[in-house]
Amino acid sequence: YDHILIDGDLLKLEFVAYYILAGEVKAAASIGRDPVVAVVAELMNNNTMLSEQELQAEQKSGKITFRGKLQ
Rounded to two decimals, what is the model's pTM? Predict the structure, then answer.
């Protein structure tokens, strides 16, 4: 992986780690936010997973929702 994008709070053990290679999310892992990984798996399976840039844009807006798929 090129890098890992962290969304959440590492100290509180409530986060999602997105493993990114060449701008694409290749894997995700979470602690305390398990529903997110199920959404990521569905999006990856359907070839509709957000790119690194899309994830970062949603993160900057305050919350990653995967285009509204996760509330």
Answer: 0.91
- What backbone torsions phi and psi does residue 61 show, to the nearest 5 degrees? -75, -10
Length of the chain measured in residues: 71
| Nearest-angstrom CA–CA distance, 68 and 24 | 19
Task: Write down the residue that tokens 């359907």 correspond to.
Answer: 46
> 38-50, pLDDT tens digit by residue?
999 999 999 999 9
Mean pLDDT of all residues in 40-69: 92
Among candidate residues 54, 46, 1, the one with its CA nearest the CA of residue 28: 1
What are residue 66's phi and psi, to 5 degrees? 55, 55
